Amino acid sequence: MDAYFAKRNLGFTMIELLVSMAVLALLLTLVAQMVNSTVTTTVNSGKHIDADGQARLIFDRMGADFASICRRADAPSYFHSQSGNDEAYFYSDAAGYFATADPNSATMSIPNSASLLGYRVSDRLSGGSRLELERLGRGLHWFDGGNTLPNGPATMMVFLPGSIPVAFKDAIADPYNNSSNLRSSTSDGNAPQWDVIGDQVFRMEFCFVLSDGSLSSIPVTQPTAKTNNLAATTPPGPGDDSGSGYSQDSRWYDKTAGVGYRCRSAGVGQATWAPLGMLDIKGFVVAVAIMDSKTRKICSATSLQSAVQELPDFDAAITDPNTGKPYLMANLWLKKVNAASTFATTTRLPPSAVSAIHIYQRWFSIN
Description:
Elements (H helix, E strand, L loop, with lengths): L1 H7 L5 H54 L10 E3 L6 E6 L18 E11 L11 E9 L22 H4 L1 H5 L20 E5 L2 E10 L4 E2 L12 E4 L18 E4 L4 E7 L6 E4 L5 E10 L2 H4 L4 H10 L18 H10 L1 H8 L3 H4 L3 E8 L2
């Protein structure tokens, strides 16, 4: 009997083997799930860290450019608030680029310390297939070598009534720019134009902080008890006078040229209006939406463009009922993105791509 039990204890029964295999399979499944969860968390954390880093670099660059901005009343700027991604162009003391093929090289005129700077998301280029934040850093001269009125390929700072969209239309359009050709060749003499500074940014929106403390999509205040025209398509003239309801300090905004004016006197037939430049602006609020390059590979250009339009523009009329102040872009965008299933359905983005969208916003003050 003892020999039988000794021999019997040398092995396992089939039931014991099956139970052991089941327990082992369960343990392996649990370990695999833990490893997969850890990998997913690590990847998502890495993407978030990358997005944080890019947003920080972008906002630091903008802060340096805005800190050196030119606020002369006769110096034009062009802040193009539009449906979808906004564009901004202005003069600043920040450094710009000069090319060796620049027709106005140092032998022809003295380089200016000011540059033409700009920010845009490149959704107008390559059929809208490339969404990246670009920065224009155009070095300027004190004199234009051609001694003609700048009209397109300007190389010097222009003053009102000249406008940036007209004088620098080649630089702003820059149709040859792409990620592999950051120093594009255009009709203005191979002058460097745009750099990609945010390859993960697909949406940019800004609004102005005005001198009266209000937030606005246009760079002029709206004085109370005054007649103002903030949707004009031409500059004001002598006939825009007291007979039309205007008075001293009334505001006029030419949205075509992006120029604001202040009424200095409103005598009938003799009204005088002075350009404002940036004198009504005390700061900017800039918001960007970022999606990492790996996630973009599973998104079509059409769906990304839909996401751009689905993240609403700033609208001063959309206010917080508790404070009466306008909602800023980050508040509106987070509300959209947090409704992930609806956002994915509307834009046709994969749900995983919606969860990879990161939104950042920063306030900038100018002196």
